[in-house]
Amino acid sequence: MSTAVPVAQRAGDDEAIAARKRAMALLAHALAPEMAEPIDRLWPRHAARDLKPIETGLVMLRGRIGGDGAPFNVGEATVTRAIVELPSGERGYAHILGRDAGRARLAAILDALWQRPEARPDVKKAVLAPIAARIAADKAKSRAETAATRVDFFTVVRGEDDA
Amino acid sequence: MTALAFTDPVFESQAVFRRIMRAMAAPGTIFHCGETLAPPAPLEPAAAAALLTLADFETPLWIAPSFAGAVAAYLTFHTGAPLAPAPAAAAFALVDLAGDGLRLERFALGSAEYPDRSTTVVAQAASFGEGPALKLAGPGVAGEAELRAAPLPDDFLAQWRANRGGFPLGVDLILAAGAKLACLPRSVVLFGEAD
């Protein structure tokens, strides 16, 4: 089979796995235009095809209280999954919260492109960096809005009833 | 390039499941199955359809040496099934009758508490309608039925008698060739033309 071994499957390649995880985490929060515009501009002929139909389903979210509690099922979340393959063999995977098939497919295409060594710098520069900046700005904005309504409570020290 | 599976997984696998259920209920009857699939060689559409429908992440799949490589990659990718280390650890097995032969006693027979935990063997034959006739009797067969599939092992009837002898334990067999399949559940009684 000519399928390239995806980066994350190579044994001992922890650094690559962590880097790909970070990229996928950003893509999961990306808006459709943030992914579609760079793809159309830089890789108009990516020719990715869907290996499985894009599907929406439920995943069980697990959680634990504190760092060491017993795991329990928090609830189910709707996710949409896309798996694409580039003609050169890279497989891109994406799971996106919600039902947006278009976003899932774009994220999967970018995950596949990220695995191409020659495309990775462009993916980082043109796609991941702007998304990270936008997310950081959104967070800073909501933090600033929250800070404006902040109230500090303090307790006046009472004199002891010793007189 | 990875080959594609069902284009509409929910409805197509339900349709195939329905056909396998009918085939199990009417042993020896040939059903069309998986016509739309184009699995990697040497896997053929009916065997592919059966495994794409039945196998999932909870069912260890044992794949005989004839199907190692592209076929194993295709099935594990599309079903998410883990590969079983040995035939006796498998919920489903895929064998090629011509390339691998068939040894029913190597597979899981289930236990007295859980006879359902046996292996369902998908055996890919070269064709139906050739080879010595198998006469069928038992549940689901009105009177007597006949099935021909080639190439079956020479001692297939003896193997089946042993498999039938352990009832309610035993393996169930799905014979597939091209885009057709027929089932031999463990409850069916087989005998040859001479018997």
- The top-level CATH class of chain B is Alpha Beta
Q: Low-confidence segments of chain B, ≥5 residues, pLDDT <50? A: none
- Known CATH architecture of chain B: 3-Layer(aba) Sandwich
Q: What is the residue-averaged pLDDT of chain B?
A: 93
Largest interface between protein chains, with number of residues from each side:
A-B, 11 and 13 residues
How many β-strand stretches of chain B? Answer: 11
Individual helix count of chain B: 5
Question: Considering the protein shown, what is the CATH homologous superfamily of chain B?
Answer: Bacterial phosphonate metabolism protein PhnH
Tell me about the biggest sheet of chain A?
3 strands, antiparallel
Q: Return the average pLDDT of chain A rounded to an integer.
A: 88
Secondary structure: helix percent of chain A: 40-55%
The CATH topology of chain B turns out to be Rossmann fold
Helix content estimate of chain B: 25-40%
User: For the CA atoms, what is the radius of gyration of chain A?
Assistant: 22 Å
**Roughly how many Å apart are the termini of chain A?**
90 Å
Shape of chain B: globular
Mind explaining what this structure looks like?
The complex is a heterodimer of chains A (163) and B (195). Chain A has a 3-stranded antiparallel β-sheet with strand order 1-2-3. Chain A has one domain (7-141). In chain A, a hairpin with an 8-residue loop joins strand 1 and strand 2. Chain A is 42% helix and 22% strand. Chain A has helices at residues 14-28, 32-42, 101-114, 120-148; strands spanning 49-63, 72-85, 91-97. In chain A, 23% of the residues are buried. Chain A is of the alpha+beta class and 163 residues long. Chain A is built from 4 helices and 3 strands, in the order H-H-E-E-E-H-H. Chain B has a single domain, classed as 3-Layer(aba) Sandwich (Rossmann fold). Chain B has helices at 9-25, 45-54, 70-79, 97-100, 156-165, and strands spanning 31-32, 61-63, 92-96, 120-124, 127-128, 134-137, 145-147, 149-150, 172-177, 180-184, 189-192. In chain B, a hairpin with a 2-residue loop joins strand 9 and strand 10 (180-184). Chain B is globular and about 50 Å long.
